[in-house]
Amino acid sequence: MANIEPAKQTRPAVRSRDLLGSLRDEMERVFEQFDRGWGTLPSVFTGTAGRAGIVPHFDVRDDGKTLTIEAELPGVDEKDVTVSLADGVLTIKGEKKQEREEKQDNYYLSERSFGSFERSLRMPEWVDDGKVEAHFDKGVLKVAAPRKAEAVKSERQIEIKKPQA
């Protein structure tokens, strides 16, 4: 009986467009991961990992007269925060700096970290730009944006009448 060798399996040659397509797909995955956040970056705001801490969250409330934007900025000094309003866009920028120094008999530890943030919000057209105010107290920034006088609507009760027969 003849000795038959199994057929060699060969891979088809990779065409250049398939290679470029694979490279493009891989790059898209990398950018998607970057866009979602790496999930392992330390946060200067919370000391935890993840993107959520890098940019502080804003609470936005509208009571019918004033739009209030509130941001908790623990450990950020007032002098390191700026608030600006240009072309209907409110921008809040800041930087947090941390320093730690520890001296013992047999070692010296010095750590510094910093991080900056910037958030912009488009303000509604009914905001009175000239009356927007910002207050910073105990690590909490509050921006109050009152409505223009003509935008404050008064409410009145409307009588419901029965249809005429």
Question: What does this entry look like structurally?
Answer:
- With 165 residues, the protein is mainly beta.
- The chain folds into two domains: 39 residues, no CATH class; 95 residues, Sandwich (Immunoglobulin-like).
- The protein contains one helix and seven strands; from the N terminus they run H-E-E-E-E-E-E-E.
- It has a four-stranded antiparallel β-sheet with strand order 1-2-7-6, with no helix packed on it. Strands 3-4-5 form a three-stranded antiparallel β-sheet, with no helix packed on it.
- About 10% of the residues have low confidence.
Q: Look at the structure and give the mean pLDDT.
A: 77
- Give the total of beta strands: 7
The proportion of residues forming helix, as a percent range, comes to 10-25%
Question: How many structural domains in the coordinates?
Answer: 2
Shape: flat
Supply the helix-strand structural class.
mainly beta
The string of secondary-structure elements, in order, is HEEEEEEE
Quaternary: single chain
Largest sheet: 4 strands, antiparallel
The parts where pLDDT drops under 50 for at least 5 residues are 37-53
Strand order of the largest sheet: 1-2-7-6
The CATH architecture classification of the largest domain is Sandwich
